[in-house]
Amino acid sequence: MATSIAELIADRMDAMPTGEKRAAQTLIANYPLIGLKTVADFSHQAGVSSPTILRFVARLGFHNYAEFQSALQDELAAQLQSPLTRTAQTPPSRGRTAQTVDATLENIHGTFQHVSDRQIRDIVTLLSNRRCGIHLVGGRFTDPIARYMAAHLTIIRPNVSHLTGQESNWRDRLIDMGKRDVLVIFDIRRYQDSLLHFAELAAKRGIHIVLVTDQWLSPIARFSRHVIAGRTAVPSAWDSSAALFVIAEILIGELTRALETESQGRIREMEALRGG
Amino acid sequence: MATSIAELIADRMDAMPTGEKRAAQTLIANYPLIGLKTVADFSHQAGVSSPTILRFVARLGFHNYAEFQSALQDELAAQLQSPLTRTAQTPPSRGRTAQTVDATLENIHGTFQHVSDRQIRDIVTLLSNRRCGIHLVGGRFTDPIARYMAAHLTIIRPNVSHLTGQESNWRDRLIDMGKRDVLVIFDIRRYQDSLLHFAELAAKRGIHIVLVTDQWLSPIARFSRHVIAGRTAVPSAWDSSAALFVIAEILIGELTRALETESQGRIREMEALRGG
DNA sequence: CCTTTTTCGTAACGTATGATACGTTTTTTA
DNA sequence: TAAAAAACGTATCATACGTTACGAAAAAGG
């Protein structure tokens, strides 16, 4: 049983006629990108005609060229998502735990490969205005992350609130939010309608929305000024929110640094109150 | 000077109109494969129209869609040809963000190098007895993780409670806990006295304690039946709880698998209630 | 060496794709 | 608030693409 298309080709290459063998060789040589181009490109590169390419693809078991390309893309997507495990692949009998941990590490790594420093900086700038209020909210499983972030932000700056309790209460809080306020939302599949409605209402009031979501992008992205997408796929019944959690920690850390001088006094004052 | 298309997008994202920004976000979130598919696929995934995608591509400086795809393919080809250099990418002048992310990855990796499968299995066995109640609690910053775990456990089994609110309330709940109950505590520096006292009281009542803490071990370890220590050091003003978060996710995942057959019916029943 | 079978390319076809013009809606500016 | 500008989507078009039929060429078998 061949797991990848490359292996599949290696298996059947011997049984192929001359022209298709040329196609197979050029595909292996330029794997897999040449297979993602057009049939004409592929055939030209291989020095054969277009129908030969199609016959080659059909011989591999695909019903048409599009199906063949989809398979290549899926394979490529899997590769791109896990560049680390590929090198350290096949200590075969790893436990489920180790596998899930690896997947989580990949998710975090992959997430931040597509998050630019600039994006972080912009969001931090937005959150560092102590005049404007910051409101945090999340979905069924992500609300604890909002809470975690709120717990930290409360310490380094004023005007931070975590929207808790019944969803109807959120709307009541809208009355206190102005155009200069920022709403930080955590939302992953399966996206909750209540959050979407709330975000829509907030957006209509001109409130800036910072959305932390998964790679499929919550519909709230439509109303958001800033969107950060984290990867969530792990071999488990649940999606992993670890990447979102790290995003929150990064934002916390950077914001703390940005407000360093101002927040020092605030922290000291707090500790005094706590100690007394 | 932007070297990659991803950077190019990050640079110009701010100056883009709403629809094109959505296109940019979905491309970054599914980078780069969505850009290699057809305009129709891309536009559908982004929730905008085809012309918006083409305008987006044009704004990036490409004369047509094919040119844009070629650029993506070239970039991808370079990546695939040197899989090793990719890890060592973004070489000397890494941002603080990247450094903190790396430290977090190290923490998680290191944490699970010292956590045995056996340990996980034992804890899962302890938590899988549906007769016994599970109570979760955490400290000032770790309580959201307890909450996160509780949100999941509530779905897959009965008798799960998150100890919320004032610390004095926790003690009142002790009266309902029996010898067969399990108390899951998250606690990192600076360890809170209130948590310690509560754990001591619980231990005296014969309640099993599962402690998730940092590598310096909370004093609660003294009363705990199981202790898992996660690494927390990052170059930031705060400690990172990401490793603890992953521990929670691992426990959730394994417990879900352990209770798979029993919890299936429960989940279905829940969705029915939710839908009705 | 001739016949049969397989393989391959030319050419033509229909569809799906990228591109564009235009009207509507939204946002910005006065 | 009204006018101007920008942005967006619908509908349409031209073409490039994948696909197929058919005949020529090559290979295999007798």
What's the arrangement of secondary structure elements?
Two copies of one chain form a homodimer.
Chain A: H1 5-12, H2 18-29, H3 33-36, H4 39-46, H5 50-59, H6 65-81, H7 83-87, H8 96-113, H9 117-127, E1 134-138, H10 143-156, E2 160-162, H11 167-174, E3 182-187, H12 193-204, E4 208-214, E5 226-230, H13 242-258, H14 260-275
Parallel strand pairs in A: 1-2, 1-3, 3-4, 4-5
Chain A binds a DNA duplex (30 and 30 nucleotides) through helix 2 and helix 5.
- Strand order in the sheet with the most strands of chain A: 2-1-3-4-5
And the CATH topology of the largest domain in chain A? Rossmann fold
Task: Please state the oligomeric state of the protein chains shown.
Answer: homodimer
**What's the domain count of chain A?**
2
Q: Give the terminus-to-terminus CA distance of chain A.
A: 70 Å
In the CATH scheme, the class of the largest domain in chain A would be Alpha Beta
What low-confidence regions of chain A span 5 or more consecutive residues with pLDDT below 50? Answer: 83-93
Mean pLDDT of chain A: 86
CATH architecture of the largest domain in chain A: 3-Layer(aba) Sandwich
Tally of DSSP helical segments of chain A: 14
The coarse silhouette of chain A is elongated
How would you spell out the order of helices and strands of chain A?
HHHHHHHHHEHEHEHEEHH
Strand elements of chain A, count: 5
**Major sheet description of chain A:** 5 strands, parallel
Instruction: Tell me roughly what share of residues is in helical segments of chain A.
Output: 55-70%
Organism (chains A, B): Nitratireductor arenosus
Pfam family, one (chains A, B): SIS
GO molecular function (chains A, B): carbohydrate derivative binding; DNA binding; DNA-binding transcription factor activity
InterPro entries (chains A, B): Homeodomain-like_sf (IPR009057), HTH_RpiR (IPR000281), RpiR-like (IPR047640), RpiR-like_SIS (IPR035472), SIS_dom (IPR001347), SIS_dom_sf (IPR046348), WH-like_DNA-bd_sf (IPR036388)
